[in-house]
Design brief:
The complex is a heterodimer of chains A (about 150) and B (about 425). Chain A has one domain: Cytochrome c-like domain (Cytochrome Bc1 Complex, Chain D, domain 2), CATH 1.10.760. Chain A is elongated and about 75 Å long. With about 150 residues, chain A is mainly α. Chain A has a two-stranded antiparallel sheet. Helix content of chain B is about 10%, strand content about 35%. Chain B folds into two domains: about 35 residues; about 375 residues, TolB, C-terminal domain (Neuraminidase, 6 Propeller). In chain B, β3 and β4 form a beta hairpin. Chain B is mostly beta strands and about 425 residues long. In chain B, the strands form eight sheets. Chain B has a five-stranded mixed sheet with strand order 10-11-12-13-17, with no helix packed on it. Chain B has five helices and 29 strands. Classes of the chains: A mainly alpha (about 150), B mainly beta (about 425). Chains A and B meet through α2 of A and loops of B.
Chain lengths: ~150, ~425
């Protein structure tokens, strides 16, 4: 009896852990799909709204438009990055000893989803590797940024 | 063991074909043109390299070189180079300010920061006598970090002409904001977007001491005084982003080639029409800007001047020089060389420019079609089309022997182009 109880509890734990494992596997696959979709959509938003100044490959333009490659502006604090897109940027930016002076206009006309996608795209492109930006983050940054 | 002993004999034998191949590969393009593509009979060499952001340049009677840096390097914003043969070495640096303008006239070296204009007295060898105490002749010009460079040139009557670029693309309510309309009676034009004339020998002149010589010029970097008809010529950087800002009115292809980069012959009081109009080089017309009610077709700009030459859009003319030397073939005499820095806002179309163009002139007027004179600064086709140009032409100057000098503000290279028949 004692043995049966022990065996059944082992069996129970085994079942639980396998199904849990499967669940984790499933959710990681769906988040991967979600990320790939966000990057693909983000690329389209980028081409339409960003590529003129920051260039197709994100290297920017000498003295004028800053690069998006390996800079703390892109790889660092996500809320700060979201706010640059929402409010624009009108200060001299200094990156690796070079300054960039063109005005970046506000892009608050983009939807929360589009901003999340485009920032996820730039954080995963041009040699960058950083975590995704979620719609919820954009929503809360937009709420906090309302003037 | 045996092999090892043979190796010293075999190796040199193997090196001979390698040497032959490498020499064959180097000729004819790179050995005598420094990687540039030039008309036949012309040669180029690199007289200096890695100088920093080399903008405009002035050559002394002795063949020495003053070059202005866009960012001071080790606290030096002007470099003085001594030239022997085809090489120039940095002798010293001075002037701890960033800037673009560099010009020699009547025993003085003139230089500009992004706010002021200075001059330095030269001795009989054209060396700066007191590098640490320049005379500040113009002070307090507007610098709002867009089109901030102040290019300079002098006439033959003791006047200096200074560009003050507009701190805006097209005077929108919100700069470069999609759909934002133009500001009524664009207020930028009071103190920027034009050329000002000052006295070349008077200290501490402000806007009010000068003459607002020409208006409605968005941004000028390349400018020169035409000695033949005693007149100022300027190259305007035309506006950007027609498609980005007004996607319903312009396709990306239109936006990549319009509007023109214009060469203007300037007389006092002229107005080139920015921001209300731009010049369409295909239709040969002045078009009302979309920010001011234009639809891409409506013409406007009564009372504004027409360009002397209209080049394709966005190529960014940063240097202008009328050639007065005797070294180049006769057809180049009194014609205009223009250094195009290269485009950035032609995407998704490939980027273009990064070359020096020649525009023939006759009797002080353009005569015939312009042609690419020196190309190949950008590097490979991929480097050029992606905008990752290796070298970007900026400043132009003529040596006493008639050679043409070209600066590159990306790698800090100075090229010397000569005619060798």
């Amino acid at each position: 009896m004692k043995f049966i109880k022990f065996a059944s509890s082992i069996l129970f734990m085994l079942i639980i852990s396998t199904s849990l494992k499967a669940q984790i596997k499933h959710s990681s696959r769906s988040s991967k799909v979600h990320l790939a979709l966000s990057i693909a959509n983000g690329k389209a938003v980028y081409t339409q709204n960003c590529a003129t100044c920051h260039q197709v490959d994100g290297h920017g333009v000498q003295n004028m438009n800053p690069p998006l490659i390996q800079t703390s502006y892109v790889l660092g604090d996500k809320t700060k990055l979201i706010k640059i897109v929402l409010n624009g940027f009108n200060e001299d930016v200094e990156i690796n000893g070079n300054t960039y002076s063109n005005t970046m206009p506000s892009h608050d006309f983009l939807k929360d989803q589009e901003i999340a996608d485009v920032l996820t795209y730039i954080r995963h492109s041009f040699g960058n590797k950083a975590s995704a930006v979620s719609v919820a983050m954009v929503k809360s940054a937009r709420g906090a940024t309302k003037k | 063991m045996k092999n090892n002993r043979l190796l010293p004999f075999i190796l040199p034998l193997m090196a001979i074909p390698a040497l032959v191949i490498s020499i064959a590969l180097k000729n004819p393009s790179s050995a005598d043109t420094a990687g540039l593509i030039l008309p036949s009979g012309f040669e180029a060499n690199i007289v200096a390299d890695n100088l920093g952001s080399a903008r405009h340049i002035a050559i002394t009677k002795q063949g020495d070189i003053y070059v202005k840096l866009n960012r001071a390097k080790n606290g030096k914003g002007i470099l003085y180079l001594h030239q022997t043969g085809d090489k120039a070495t940095v002798v010293n640096g001075f002037g701890n300010y960033a800037g673009t303008g560099m010009y020699i006239k009547n025993g003085y070296l003139y230089a500009s920061s992004n706010e002021d204009v200075y001059r330095y007295k030269l001795n009989d060898k054209d060396e700066v006598i007191n590098p640490n105490e320049p005379e500040r002749i113009v002070v307090g010009l507007l610098n709002r970090h867009e089109h901030e460079s102040k290019s300079i040139v002098l006439d033959n009557n003791g006047n200096i002409y200074v560009n003050v670029g507009a701190y805006s693309n097209s005077c929108q309510e919100k700069d470069r904001q999609k759909g934002s309309m133009g500001r009524k009676g664009c207020p930028i034009l009071d103190s920027a977007g034009g050329i000002w004339e000052f006295k070349a020998d008077k200290l501490n002149q402000h806007y009010g001491d000068g003459i607002h010589y020409a208006k409605g010029l968005r941004n000028v970097v390349g400018l020169d005084w035409n000695q033949q008809d005693n007149q100022l010529f300027v190259m305007q950087h035309g506006r950007d982003q027609l498609h980005d800002l007004f996607p319903d009115l312009y396709t990306t292809q239109q936006s990549a080639i319009e509007p023109a980069e214009c060469l203007y012959a300037i007389k006092e009081g002229d107005n080139a029409g920015w921001p209300y109009i731009y010049y369409d080089q295909e239709k040969h017309e002045k078009i009302l800007a979309p920010e001011y009610g234009g639809d891409g077709r409506k013409t406007a700009g009564e009372g504004t001047i027409n360009p002397a030459v209209a080049f394709p859009g966005h190529l960014a003319p940063d240097g202008l020089l009328f050639y007065t030397g005797n070294q180049f073939p006769e057809r180049y005499k009194n014609g205009a060389f223009i250094a195009f820095h290269g485009s950035w806002n032609r995407a998704p179309e490939p980027q273009a420019g990064y070359f020096v163009v020649f525009q023939p002139f006759k009797d002080g007027r353009p005569d015939g079609k312009w042609e690419v004179f020196a190309d190949g600064f950008a590097g490979t086709q991929t480097q050029k089309e992606s905008g990752n140009a290796v070298h970007r032409p900026c400043g132009l100057a003529q040596g006493l022997d008639g050679s043409l000098y070209v600066t590159d503000d990306n790698k800090g290279t100075i090229y010397k182009i000569s005619y060798k028949k």
